[in-house]
Every structure is written in C-alpha cells, then in structure tokens.
Design goal:
The chain is mostly helical and 289 residues long. The chain has ten helices and four strands; from the N terminus they run ααααββαααββααα. Helix 3 crosses helix 4 and helix 6 runs antiparallel to helix 7.
Length: 289
C-alpha cells in the first residue's frame, strides 16, 4: 500500500479523535492500556454528540450510549476484548456504567479525567489516588513568535468577575492540568522576563474554564462558555509562546488587557497557523529558503 504525501494544509480536511495527553504523560495512567486510552477518546467524541440528543440526566450530567457491538466495530475486536477495555476504563474511574434493564443499553457516564475524585483507583495493578501528579516537563525548542493580534478593540467589561467560580479544589485540578500540558515552568525558563505575563495568562485560563457564566465575551462577541472552554483546552505550549509574542510586538493601546489576552488565547490555534504560513511565504519570496 503506497499512500500519498500531505501538501500544505491538506491535513485540515480530516476529522480527528482527541485523546488527552494526560493519559500518556501522567504516571497514574501508566498501566492503562493503549487500546483503553483510544476507547476513552472515542467516548469523549460521543460526549460532544450527547447534548444534541438531549442525553442529560436530571442532575445535568451528560451520558452516552455506546454498545458492545459498536465498540467491536470501531476497534475491530472481539466482544471479549471490548468488554475487557470497558472494565479497564471503569476500574480507573474514567467511565461509569448504569444498567437500565428491560433490554435497554447501559447508560454510560464519561468521567472528566481532570476532576477525578480523591479516592483510590480500583485497579489491582495501580494504587495511586485520583489526584493528578505533575512532573517536570522537558523544555522543548520552538521559534519565537512575533506578530500583532488582529481585532484588538476590546470591551471594558470583565468577562469573569460577575460569575461564580467553581470550588477551590476544582480550580487547583485545572491549574495542575495546565501547568503540565502547557509546560508553564519551561516557558518561564525560556522567557524569564515574561514570567509575570505567563502567570497572568494562566490565571485568565483558570478564570475562564472555571467560570459559571453561560457566555464569555471574546473580542466583542458573546460565545457559549463551553465553546470557549473547549477551545482553550486544546492549547499547548507553542500557543502560549505565540501569545507572548503578540503581547511583545503589539503597538496599539489596549484598554482591557484581560480581554486582549483571552481573545489571543482563543484565536491562537487558528492565528498561529496563518502566521507561520505567512513567514514561510515571505522567506520563499525573499530567497531565504
């Protein structure tokens, strides 16, 4: 089988399943099988569809339907293997199956991997607690990002202060997640003069994902908080360095710094690709590459 090569932005045409990095990087999940991690990614994909189907219980918790037959088809495995993977995810507290009887399929709750309860994992092979343990990430090299952010006109309203925050414990769990996923300490080492800005960016991320408001204002537009949260949870260390570059090179007057930074973070996954594409085109035009 001879597959072709990717050209330019062709990779953007595909749909992808997302598997959280923490499942591979955190010691707590070290003995969770790769197949089980893939299955958890498939569960997460179904969570996003549950709201459209109104699969939400009386307590506001989202659930999914994912039959054993469907898992077999998706993973191309036998029923024994599919059942083993379900039990494995259950033992790690990543899913919870609720039987409904009357030949109805199980109602499955997909647990938030960041907000695991502080109770021992039930697997016989792993006795860590559900608290995420943060290890020092290795610093990665990346080119500096210097550009101006479009749409810098911001409202003076603060999108966070009028909403109730989640509990302190939950906020700390999100803090631990971002510290590891975004490699915050590495970024501070690479940009020692921007350490305060990095801390401010982290706090803005936490304020946003922990906000209980229904909408968050991004560059003058009110967006559903879950849409904003989903976008911010996709960020990695390169996006934070990109935003630092935006802040460094910006020459316009910023009325509301928090709004500006939030807009930069929200748009970073799209803006960063356009930025690097323009750099490559510029270098090709000037003969640098």
């Amino acid at each position: 089988m001879d597959f072709g090569y990717f050209h330019e932005e062709e990779s953007e045409q595909f749909a992808f399943y997302r598997i959280p990095q923490v499942l591979f990087k955190d010691e707590k999940f070290a003995k969770l099988s790769t197949d089980a991690k893939v299955l958890y990614g498939l569960f997460l994909n179904r969570v996003s569809l549950s709201k459209k189907n109104h699969w939400i219980d009386d307590e506001g918790r989202v659930y999914v339907y994912y039959t054993l037959v469907s898992i077999q088809e998706d993973l191309h495995c036998a029923s024994q293997k599919a059942l083993k993977l379900l039990k494995e995810l259950e033992s790690y507290g990543l899913i919870e199956r609720v039987k409904q009887g009357l030949c109805k399929p199980d109602r499955i709750y997909v647990k938030n991997f960041i907000l695991l309860q502080e109770s021992p994992v039930r697997s016989g092979e792993n006795h860590h607690t559900g608290v995420v343990k943060i290890t020092s990430p290795e610093c990665r090299e990346s080119p500096p990002n210097n550009t101006e952010l479009n749409n810098t006109e911001c409202s003076n309203t603060n999108p966070f202060l009028s909403g109730e925050r989640m509990g302190t414990e939950e906020r700390e769990q999100y803090r631990n997640y971002f510290l590891e996923t975004l490699e915050i300490e590495c970024i501070k080492e690479r940009h020692p003069y921007s350490a305060d800005q990095v801390d401010e960016i982290l706090e803005i991320l936490l304020d946003t994902v922990c906000s209980k408001r229904k909408q968050i204002r991004i560059a003058g537009d009110d967006k559903p908080v879950q849409v904003v949260k989903s976008q911010l949870m996709k960020l990695d260390y390169s996006h934070i360095e990109f935003v630092l570059g935006c802040l460094k090179e910006n020459t316009t007057h910023i009325k509301n710094m928090k709004q500006y930074i939030l807009a930069a973070l929200y748009n970073a996954p799209i803006t960063i690709n356009n930025y690097y594409s323009s750099l490559v085109q510029h270098d090709m035009a000037t003969g640098k590459i």
